[in-house]
Amino acid sequence: MTAPVFVVDAVPAKGRFVLEGPEGRHAVSVRRLHAGEHVVLTDGRGTGAAAVVLAAEGKDRLVVDVTDVSAEPQPAPRITVVQALPKGDRGEVAVETMTETGVDAIVPWQASRCITQWRGDRGAKSLAKWRATAREAGKQSRRLRFPEVADALTTKQVGALLATADFAAVLHEDASVGSGALATAGLPDTGSIVLVVGPEGGVSPEELALFAEAGAKPYRLGSSVLRTSTAGTAAAALLLGRTGRWS
User: Fold this and answer.
1) What phi-psi label fits residue 135: left (phi over 0), alpha (psi between -120 and 50 degrees) or beta?
2) 84 Cβ contact partners less than 8 Å away, ≥ 6 residues apart
3) 3-28: b or e for each residue (b if 16 or more CB lie within 10 Å)?
4) How far apart are CA 105 and CA 121, in angstroms?
5) β-strand pairing of 15-19 with 5-7
6) What does each of the 247 residues of the chain score in pLDDT, given as a tens digit?
7) Is the peptide bond before 108 cis (omega within 30 degrees of 0)?
């Protein structure tokens, strides 16, 4: 079993280090780690340190010996999923599974057919939940680089993002309006890939037209219709395999 991951503000150099605060409490009081066990410390931005536990002190101090520090290169191509806001807690489910799969960035999207609306304090709390979910899922899946969760974008802002991508696609279940299967689409070896996942009610014709102007064509994922909270994960897994990032 791989070593558990804990988040630090800055990855320490080799030598003695004390993990404190909430992460230290989790290591000592929840995981109950003891001397001789291995852990990984990361800043969530691609740098990690392998360490061996020396001692647990009190309820929230884990003393470790950092034995190695490494930096993970930026992934290529970079995969961003624009996720329309699902109902209830399905948004956190989507963020969790996309993080575990290996998505690099997640962009909440207030689509015209979204039932859920992010406004004011509710929007701020929902965004904070998505970011906390990405952090915890990143730790659970032993990632050194956690996905960035952006501020929620409007349709126009999503169009501007799509225009900067090396490959952009809108997942769509209707083959008659699409450009074929995502499984056979031509993909870049480097640069950025941006996928748009619509809401349960689908992407509107007006949104499809705006995204097409930005260079994003509709693609079908498969013969079955996936929920908005699972489509991004399935599509990301397909692309991670096709681009060699899972090789």
Assistant:
1) alpha
2) 109, 110, 111, 113, 114, 196, 197, 198, 199, 203, 228
3) bbbbbbeebbeeeebebbeebbbbbb
4) 23
5) unpaired
6) 689 999 999 999 999 999 999 999 999 999 999 999 999 999 999 999 999 999 999 999 999 999 999 999 999 999 999 999 998 899 999 999 999 999 999 999 999 999 988 999 989 999 999 999 999 999 999 999 999 999 999 999 999 999 999 999 999 887 566 678 999 999 999 999 999 999 998 999 999 999 999 999 999 998 888 899 999 999 999 999 999 999 8
7) no
pTM of the model: 0.94
Q: Over the Cα atoms of the chain, what is R_g? A: 20
**HEC per residue, the chain:** CCCCEEECCCCCCCEEEEECHHHHHHHHHHCCCCCCCEEEEECCECEEEEEEEEEEECCCEEEEEEEEEEECCCCCCEEEEEEECCCCCHHHHHHHHHHHHCCCEEEEECCCCCCCCCCHHHHHHHHHHHHHHHHHHHHHCCCCECCEECCCECHHHHHHHHHCCCEEEEECCCHHHCCCEHHHCCCCCCCEEEEEECCCCCCCHHHHHHHHHCCCEEEECCCCCCCHHHHHHHHHHHHHHHCCCCC
Tell me which amino acid residue 230 is.
T
Tokens of 99: 């993080």
Residue 122 in tokens: 């509710």
Token duo for residue 135: 């952090």
